[in-house]
Amino acid sequence: MNIIENLWQTDHIIRGWLKEVREDILSELHDPLAVAEKTSRKDLVTNVDKANEKKIIKAIRSFDSQAKILGEEGQGDQVTSMQGHVWIIDPLDGTLNFVKQRDNFAVMIALYIDGKGILGYIMDVMRNRIYGGGPSLGVFTQDNELTKPTNLHLRDGLLGVSGPMLIHDKYHLQAIDEASSGVRIIGSAGIEFIQVLKGKQNGYISHLMPWDFAAGKILAETLNLSVTKVDGTPVDMLSSNDVLVSTKDTQKDILNMIR
Amino acid sequence: MNIIENLWQTDHIIRGWLKEVREDILSELHDPLAVAEKTSRKDLVTNVDKANEKKIIKAIRSFDSQAKILGEEGQGDQVTSMQGHVWIIDPLDGTLNFVKQRDNFAVMIALYIDGKGILGYIMDVMRNRIYGGGPSLGVFTQDNELTKPTNLHLRDGLLGVSGPMLIHDKYHLQAIDEASSGVRIIGSAGIEFIQVLKGKQNGYISHLMPWDFAAGKILAETLNLSVTKVDGTPVDMLSSNDVLVSTKDTQKDILNMIR
Questions:
Q1: Which of residues 10 through 49 in chain B touch A, CB cutoff 8 A?
Q2: Is B43 annotated as a binding residue?
Q3: ipTM over 0.90
Q4: Domain spanning B154-258: which CATH class is it, in words?
Q5: Less CB within 10 Å around the terminal CB: N or C of chain A?
Q6: What one-character-per-residue DSSP string does chain B give?
Q7: How near does any CA of chain A get to the CA of B100, in Å?
Q8: Do B4-140 and B154-258 agree at the fold level?
Q9: Percent above pLDDT 90 for chain B
Q10: CATH architecture under which domain B4-140 falls
């Protein structure tokens, strides 16, 4: 199947994968988890992260023979360029929330072709909502199309941030937060992106890996939001970045405070 | 009716008031709000806060002729002592979230008799959950009884905090947060209390007024959680306090870091 010529069908298929992954997660929700630390006691992986990734990779491989797959848990490919069909997946975003709360976590899938964002999906598992689509389709959840959020200034909305970046006052983030209406910390990039897509937060700032922002970037840009490094330069899709997603006026306000 | 002798009936009646208030809020949810600033641009009140308070006060007055009522928006009584029947109500907690997100806000009702917490209720409006009860009844939501959260240490769970207190590093809160599994900021005391009651967060620290913590204190203590000032001393029910609600071991860990 030619993906570009059949985007709506691809959209339907990807949403189907996510629904299956959600069923798997819900069936594991009350079982004890196998939790392992990766880089620190705050950077966790569970059996569920790994099982989800395995399932999604299998689905992508049988759907798209040209796929190169970049996944958080490393069961995909070594991706060194954005040429061709690059799928970027986060099988469970917000693992700490998953372990401690069994809430506020996401599953994300993105497809880039030759570096261009084509389709992105963020599933809020516990609220049973998939936010997905792309520049050609628009952004849809199950029941409706998302409209472009109002282009609010920093002072007129809430700002989501990373806890460690706020505590260490990176980029004068403490002053930036005080200039906003208020600061929020959810602990899942996917859920934070959803808040911005829906206009419930003006923006979100965090140190993110490609799988944390690949899907959100496609959806945010489709809705006329800005996704850049915090200093305003373009993000690198194949490495970690300090990412700012926000309304355009909020981005300007933040850049003025950083410079 | 003698309230103490008819606690289950009183519980049923209070939950009925809350359901009515919720219907009112939902009917206003997509209308423009009349928003006014109180002490600052981050301290808001809306027509909905005021209408809720009026409705709850009217219900209490016709139910309990001995009621003294302390409400956030000042339509109740001037309460100067905890003697007798003292009802403490927050008609809309998390007004900034209500205005900016239409999510993550609560309605709270508490009844104290001669200073003793009898019944407390926190309604998460958008998730349609009422957490309520007291020391004689236990704590129930619509469908089940809450069990006592595991007595986790600070390092083993998430900690909810007030954004301004974190940014100003009051009580070494930045170090305390780094010692926890992670920091979260929701922006509604009621919703934060719910997270602690359900064991999804180890604790919550914020500068709170009586209506912000009166209901949560009753529910938390019923579930063997600790509710004190951040320095470990008892809270004053008639003034603002820097409040810590947490598991007992987390409280000890935090007190050790503050001293």
A1: 41-42
A2: no
A3: yes
A4: alpha beta
A5: C
A6: --TGGGHHHHHHHHHHHHHHHHHHHHHHTTSPP-EEEEEETTEEEEHHHHHHHHHHHHHHHHH-TTEEEEETTS-S-------SEEEEEEEEE-HHHHHHHS-S-EEEEEEEETTEEEEEEEEETTTTEEEEEETTTEEE-SS-BPPPPP---GGGSEEEE-HHHHHTTGGGHHHHHHHSSEEEB-S-HHHHHHHHHTTSSSEEEEEE-HHHHHHHHHHHHHTT-EEEETTSSPPPTTS-EEEEEE-HHHHHHHHHHH-
A7: 6
A8: no
A9: 93
A10: 2-Layer Sandwich (3.30)
